[in-house]
Amino acid sequence: MSTTFHTISIDGLNIFYREAGSKENPTILLLHGFPTSSHMFRNLIPLLADRFHLVAPDYPGFGNSSMPTVDEFDYTFDHLADVMDQFTKALGLSKYSLYVMDYGAPIGFRLAAKHPERVAALIVQNGNAYEEGLRDFWEPLKAYWHDRSLENADKLRQFLTLDATKWQYTHGVRNPQTISPDNWNIDQPLLDRPGNNDIQLALFYSYGSNPPLYPQWQEYFRTYQPPTLIVWGKNDFIFPAEGAHPYKRDLNTVEFHLLDTGHFALEEEGETIADHIRRFLPAHIA
């Protein structure tokens, strides 16, 4: 059940991914958040690999995947979703459950709305699809969406610093001493690569394309009713619990868990989340 590490060429880019488990078992496609990579799933994958086939890619500009410059690649959520769509086709993933977190939500929900027949279930961990989830943290980003000025961009650069990366991992957790510094010591050097700040600012701007799609994604939930497991760090300041509750409006089969931790809930509640997945998915997917 060991995790293996691969790179595949997608549209001229090298896309890195982690894989574990038998391909005969149900597949879970794990889509990571900002500012990390598939590294965020490093502990979850071994806990599930005996029952599921797990695939966790890094997006362009993240982790071990190619990092073309903003002049060479259009860093938008539409484009990242297109690359991930091509990735799933290249790997022959015709049916999968989607684990979405942070940036993984707008990428994954684009895939789900485009190919609803492929999605067996959803696992949502601090990933937003409702206006209620965009609260105080998002005010400077909303200003940037409305006015892509250098002044507004400079205000967002604070999110790309070591202090900010460490804060994402430690804010809202019960015990910061249980959070490995390997997280920010791996993520931050990748953020600090020449040109990566421009990539992240482009995606901060592109995030403004997501809220207009929320009604479309909510319609997908209502129409196709994917069985959904919510495992949400309730102390997250970025995606607070107010964004978790509205899923219950649109989904008939939803299991809902607010966990006493922060944004990267897997760091403190990985075993709990794995236990929920091991119980929920077999009960709700063929």
Unreliable stretches (pLDDT < 50, length at least 5) are none
Q: Total strand count, please?
A: 8
CATH class: Alpha Beta
Query: CATH H-level name... which superfamily?
Result: Alpha/Beta hydrolase fold, catalytic domain
Q: N- to C-terminal separation?
A: 22 Å
Shape: globular
The computed structural class is alpha/beta
Average per-residue pLDDT, rounded, comes to: 98
Biggest sheet: strands, sense, closure? 8 strands, mixed
Which strand order spans the largest sheet, edge to edge or round the barrel?
1-2-4-3-5-6-7-8
Query: What's the structural domain tally?
Result: 1
- SSE order in H/E notation? EEEHEHEHEHHHHHHEHEH
Structure in words:
This protein has 286 residues and is of the alpha/beta class. The protein has one domain: Alpha/Beta hydrolase fold, catalytic domain (Rossmann fold, 3-Layer(aba) Sandwich), CATH 3.40.50.1820. Helices cover 38% and strands 17% of the residues. The protein contains eleven helices and eight strands. It has helices spanning 44-48, 77-90, 104-114, 139-146, 150-156, 162-170, 182-191, 196-206, 214-224, 247-250, 266-284, and strands spanning 4-10, 13-20, 27-31, 53-57, 96-100, 119-124, 228-233, 254-259. It has an eight-stranded mixed beta sheet, with helices on both faces. Helix 10 links the parallel strand 7 and strand 8 (254-259). Helix 6 packs antiparallel against helix 7. The model has no long low-confidence stretch (mean pLDDT 98).
